[in-house]
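Hi support team,

I've been running sequence recovery on a batch of backbones for a student project. Most finish fine, but this one hangs at about 90% for roughly twenty minutes before it completes. I'm not sure whether the input is malformed or the queue is just slow. I've pasted the structure tokens below so you can try to reproduce it. Let me know if you need the job ID as well.

Thanks,
M.K.
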């Protein structure tokens, strides 16, 4: 039985409602999952929320709520957003779920012998829930160092607890990373990991917190005075879920962990070391960790504590309120605007520009013109036959269209979403140019009916292919194009995209309202 493709998103902190950065990871993960499903593969997409730790406890206290009650409320914001954006996950794990808590305790009990009990001196970044040793802070000395990752002030810590050996695993990790050049992607992050591993790692990672300071966490099984460090707890979800669902055989190892670049160290250093200490072999390590870039506003990373967040719900339901496929427009923008892995600048102008040009002028126009001409010249029925004459033009568009699935496959094997969309949109542009060059209206005037129908046949086939290949990116738009063509259901199989012709009976078109109403409607609406 082929392995189920197992894709994960990070578990989002429930200290605040989701923003664009969170939605980015989930949209990308959902797009990849949908792509594999379209290829007929079994897929399991795991997402969820990270609900323990000081950061959540503080946010709950500030809201005057108990942590669990607070988490129960915020988690709904995530679920609602995923539903709004068409994120189709197979399981939603909350780290406060008893089955997960139990599994974490079991792992700790299993690791008890390898952990060291000691007192830790160092620095702690509460917003990142991350420890830093003086060594790692390098040149920063004195009493107020800042976090190397988020630049916020660190708090001194001096705590007794249990420690996972990091440095003792460094050689193993270095060798593993060297043998698996695609373990971390993109290449910049792989190189970053290698440079991190060229320096000595801290000897240990403290994986407990004293209850006296942080009570909101999973009770450590062997110490009544400690809870489990939130990262240790959260990372384990990737393996606890397949285990408690009884699907570890089929799912593990994870095929892709999608993360943002700020949590590379946790995923590419701590996580494999945890698994290695748990006795997993090299072949059982996660196959790929992809660390994408940040969405920024101006020069800054978008983040709640910087107070510069953009709420995706507002973008979709307010800015794009007149768009029938607002969520898909948003998904398209995120995946097309910036090469996955690089940082991007978010602005409403950039979003509206993509909507107006790529989606309105190019894609929407192609669909609308083609279907309107089929209405007018073919009595609203899909023309089936290839036309006589101009075979060279037909052939060149046909070969471009039927090559798109392979190009998509290549781009998505590298998780290059923007280049995949660029390829699809190139086909759209070429098809629009084909309309100009073939000028169906002139063919109609001149009475060249067979050729006219042939041209519209080619265009209908291109639309059919576009509907299929767009499915992972814009599922609702894909379904709408499919239905407007009068085809049944929704695109099911990517392999159908390379078939030409794929439309076998002369179906009647369905109603075809404009997919992307013009910009003015947004402004005045
Ligand atoms: N709870 C941890 C992850 C634990 S995984 C076992 C966490 N949560 S988070 O809510 O802070 O971040 C979740 C994801 O959102 C991370 O991948 C992070 O990189 C991403 N983003 C948060 N802000 C971002 C941007 N401004 N831009 C893009 N993504 C960023 O970290």
């Amino acid at each position: 039985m082929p392995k189920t493709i197992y894709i994960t998103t990070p578990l989002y902190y429930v200290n605040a409602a989701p923003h664009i950065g969170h939605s980015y990871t989930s949209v990308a993960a959902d797009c990849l999952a949908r792509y594999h499903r379209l290829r007929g593969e079994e897929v399991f997409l795991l997402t969820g929320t990270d609900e323990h730790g000081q950061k959540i406890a503080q946010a709950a206290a500030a809201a005057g709520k108990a942590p669990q009650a607070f988490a129960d409320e915020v988690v709904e914001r995530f679920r609602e957003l995923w539903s709004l954006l068409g994120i189709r996950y197979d399981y939603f794990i909350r780290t406060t779920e008893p089955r997960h808590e139990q599994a974490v305790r079991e792992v700790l009990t299993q690791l008890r012998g390898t952990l060291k009990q000691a007192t830790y001196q160092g620095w702690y970044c509460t917003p990142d829930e991350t420890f830093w040793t003086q060594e790692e802070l390098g040149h920063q000395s004195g009493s107020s160092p800042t976090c190397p990752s988020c630049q916020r002030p660190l708090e001194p810590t001096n705590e007794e607890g249990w420690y996972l050996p990091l440095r003792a695993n460094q050689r193993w990790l270095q060798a593993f990373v060297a043998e698996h050049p695609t373990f971390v992607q993109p290449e910049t992050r792989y190189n970053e990991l290698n440079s991190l591993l060229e320096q000595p790692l801290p000897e240990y990672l403290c994986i407990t917190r004293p209850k006296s300071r942080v009570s909101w966490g999973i009770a450590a099984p062997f110490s009544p005075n400690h809870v489990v460090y939130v990262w240790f707890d959260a990372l384990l979800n990737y393996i606890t879920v397949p285990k408690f669902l009884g699907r570890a055989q089929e799912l593990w190892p994870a095929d892709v962990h999608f993360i943002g670049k700020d949590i590379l160290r946790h995923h590419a250093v701590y996580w494999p070391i945890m698994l290695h200490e748990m006795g997993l072999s090299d072949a059982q390590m996660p196959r790929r960790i992809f660390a994408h870039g940040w969405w920024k506003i101006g020069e800054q990373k978008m983040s709640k504590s910087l107070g510069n967040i953009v709420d995706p719900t507002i973008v979709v339901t307010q800015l794009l309120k007149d768009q029938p496929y607002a969520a898909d427009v948003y998904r398209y923008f995120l995946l097309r605007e910036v090469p996955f892995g690089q940082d991007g600048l978010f602005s409403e102008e950039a979003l509206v520009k993509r909507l107006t040009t790529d989606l309105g002028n190019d894609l929407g126009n192609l669909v609308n013109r083609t279907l309107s001409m089929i209405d007018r010249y073919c009595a609203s029925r899909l023309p089936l036959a290839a036309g006589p004459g101009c075979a060279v033009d037909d052939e060149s568009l046909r070969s471009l269209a039927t090559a798109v699935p392979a190009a998509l496959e290549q781009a998505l094997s590298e998780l290059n979403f923007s280049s995949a969309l660029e390829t699809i949109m190139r086909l759209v542009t070429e098809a629009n140019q084909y309309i100009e060059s073939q000028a169906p209206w002139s063919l109609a005037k001149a009475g060249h009916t067979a050729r006219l129908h042939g041209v519209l046949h080619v265009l209908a086939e291109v639309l059919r292919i576009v509907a299929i290949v767009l499915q992972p990116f814009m599922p609702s738009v894909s379904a709408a194009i499919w239905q407007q063509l009068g085809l049944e259901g929704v695109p099911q199989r990517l392999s159908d995209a390379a078939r030409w012709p794929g439309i076998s009976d002369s179906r009647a078109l369905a109603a075809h309202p404009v997919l992307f109403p013009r910009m003015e409607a947004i402004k005045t609406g």
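--
Follow-up from support: It reproduced on our side and the slowdown came from queue contention, not your input. Residues 10-13, 21-22, 24-25, 50, 234-235, 259-260, 262-263, 294-295, 301-303 surround 5'-O-[(L-methionyl)-sulphamoyl]adenosine (CB under 6 Å). No action needed from you.
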